[in-house]
Amino acid sequence: MTCDVTDFDQQEAMVRAALEAFGRIDVAFANAGFGAKRGFLEETPELWRDMVLTNVLGCAYTIRATVPALTESTGHLLLTSSVAGRRALSGSLYSATKHAVTAMAEAARQDLNETGIRVTAIEPGMVDTPFFDDRPTNALEPDDIARIVMFAVSQPSHVDVNEILIRPVSQPT
């Protein structure tokens, strides 16, 4: 179903639809996001606003909307951060949003610790997706990320993989 992650009512509707269709939610994956050109004089303030709302508030709304169902199922919450969320990139507001997501994942893990919900931050480097205007060579493939996600969610219930940083071999930083 289509969902604007920056609209909490739509997030709640998505959760209701999933519960009606499947009866439970075992995994929630906050994966929506986009970037912008580096440089604090680049892009428009409107694009920045939309990026911050999508990348940061969208994740927070996903957490809030899914926690009751994940508590019921003792499920797994995944948030997409980035290698850019582990180190600052010159002139990158995107990097700041992904630092926020990495921190949010740890904050959620601590907050949900007694519920049994597992929380994982996925931190990919370059992935060959439309995220880049010029598709990178020697990048990760989307299937590489899917395998990492499946690794995290397939661990025994007593194992909580908190962060997974994944980069292509040729990515220098």
Description:
The chain is built from four helices and four strands. It is of the alpha/beta class and 173 residues long. It has one domain: NAD(P)-binding Rossmann-like Domain (Rossmann fold, 3-Layer(aba) Sandwich). The chain has a four-stranded parallel β-sheet, sandwiched between helices. α1 runs parallel beside α2 (45-73) and α2 (45-73) packs parallel to α3 (93-112). The longest helix has 29 residues, at 45-73. The N and C termini lie far apart (36 Å).
How is the topology of this model organized?
Elements: H1 8-22, E1 27-30, H2 45-73, E2 76-80, H3 93-112, E3 118-124, H4 142-153, E4 163-166
Parallel strand pairs: 1-2, 2-3, 3-4
Helix pairs in contact: 1-2, 2-3
Number of domains: 1
Q: If classified by CATH, what would the architecture be?
A: 3-Layer(aba) Sandwich
Average of pLDDT? 94
Spatial strand sequence of the major β-sheet:
1-2-3-4
Distance, first to last CA: 36 Å
**CATH class placement:** Alpha Beta
What gross morphology would you assign?
A: globular
What is CATH's topology name? Answer: Rossmann fold
The class by helix and strand makeup works out as alpha/beta
